[in-house]
Amino acid sequence: MPENPAPASARVAVKRLPARGFYDRPTIDAILDEALVCHVGFNVDSQPFVIPTIFGRHGDQVFFHGSQASRMLRAVRGGIPMCLTATLLDGLVLARSAFHHSINYRSVVILGAAAEIVEPEAKVAALKVISDHVIPGRWDEVRPPNKQELAATSVLALPIAEASAKVRTGPPKDDEEDYALPVWAGELPIEPETQPPIPDARLPQSIGVPGYIANYRRPR
Amino acid sequence: MPENPAPASARVAVKRLPARGFYDRPTIDAILDEALVCHVGFNVDSQPFVIPTIFGRHGDQVFFHGSQASRMLRAVRGGIPMCLTATLLDGLVLARSAFHHSINYRSVVILGAAAEIVEPEAKVAALKVISDHVIPGRWDEVRPPNKQELAATSVLALPIAEASAKVRTGPPKDDEEDYALPVWAGELPIEPETQPPIPDARLPQSIGVPGYIANYRRPR
User: Which residues contact B9 (CB under 8 A, 6 or more apart)?
Assistant: First the structure.
């Protein structure tokens, strides 16, 4: 277990159940790297929006992308305050009382402002980071973005500077007097699992499923 | 396929790829009912926060809960603008070009303000809705919340009035000239699957795994 440093700010500190809060980069990075999608929060006219999107981490930055025309991209590329949250659901926690039921999960919250990546080579590199995050190995096989596609895409970088992880693991914690109740208690783990790949209808039969799809797994 | 009504407001309308936007309640409700967690977005001092939480739907309302002391609950029970987003990840979509890669997903965005449920009987009923959403059948077997637990819990109701669903399904859509590229294309479905339940260490061996855990499935 890595040492748990102090939070970067009061506002990013885990308030409820602070023992579940972690601020070390190995814990934060492992959650970001395993999560496939994140949820980005931002304001338009003081109304919060929360939108799911794919992303990728490279060093101290998280990249995400979208159409130049998307509301999310137009809002956050101005450098307004935003929040990026990645959540891994690990299972249900069944206690003897309704109150002590819980969820095993690992989540990361990053607060900050995103900067747009405009230089074309840096933009392509960031898109490769996102692609490698979702499907390692895929980028090198497919047609890379052309000029028009690149121009139509906004790529944003959010620094991992003000971030926290929150983690719950393990069995239920019941009140002592409830352990005698005749009710099943424990954990029901849940994991995302791939199903058999579905080839595109126009794919020639000679093109087999690549190894990175046949053996697809999130890093853990 | 149910008819697709107009969005309740301009701000909740799906802007990017509007053909993926749905505003009918059967589509919205089915996504809400299948999702185990949602992400709640709210502002504290103009900084957006996005926090994962469990929830449950009853009719035209979504209930969620937390500690009276939680930042999320303290912020949103004042009736400030919030956003609740539920996302189901259905799989990866592999195109012949990097640009046309996508994700199959179903998501719901609800904008509005939450009201706190204070009347104890209504509060217990809403907690049962959340419990039934996560594990149908569980509530009736466990010790119900006592006075102190109920007082320590905030329960909020968000109306499903300004809501939209966004859905992507099916194969990749490539540029016509890219179909000739010798690269695998198609879908990789991903589904959350339960793993064998883990009994609590203090559970008597005489108490077997209940059917609602042995046969646990999200509604679909």
Answer: B111, B162
User: Quick check: B98 and A139 CB within 8 A?
Assistant: yes
- Residue A17 zone, left/alpha/beta (φ > 0; ψ -120 to 50; rest): left
- B137 phi-psi bin (left φ>0, alpha ψ -120 to 50, beta other): left
pLDDT digits (tens, 9 = 90+) for B36-94: 999 999 999 999 999 999 999 999 999 999 888 888 888 888 899 999 999 999 999 99
Distances (CA, A) of A153 to A116, A147, B98, B141: 11, 10, 12, 52
Nearest CA distance, A1 vs chain B (angstrom): 23
B169 within some domain: yes
Q: Is B133 part of any domain?
A: yes
Residue A154 belongs to a domain: yes
If you ran DSSP here, which 8-state letter would residue A77 be given? T
**Residue appearing with tokens 């396929």:** B1
Show residues of chain A in contact with B216, CB under 8 Å: 92, 188
Name beta bridge partners: A188.
Answer: A92
Whether B51 sits inside 8 A of A203 (CB atoms) is no
Residues of A in contact with B101 (CB under 8 A): 131, 134-135, 138, 142
Mutation target among A133, A143, A193, A207 for the B interface, most CBs of B within 10 A? A143
CATH number at A167 reads 2.30.110.10
pLDDT at A148 over 70: yes
Answer yes or no: is pLDDT of A15 > 90: no
Please tell me the distance from the alpha carbon of residue A131 to that of residue A146, in angstroms, as a whole number.
Answer: 16
DSSP secondary structure letters along B68-107: TT-HHHHHHTTT-EEEEEEEEEEEEEE-SBSTT-EEEEEE
Residues 6+ apart with CB under 8 A from A118: none
3-state SS class at B51: strand
Q: Is B200 a member of any domain?
A: no
For B216, the 3-state DSSP assignment is: coil
Res A1 pLDDT > 80 = no
Number of domains in chain B: 1
Q: Do B184 and A16 touch (CB under 8 A)?
A: no
Note down the domain range covering A146: 18-173+201-214
ipTM: 0.96
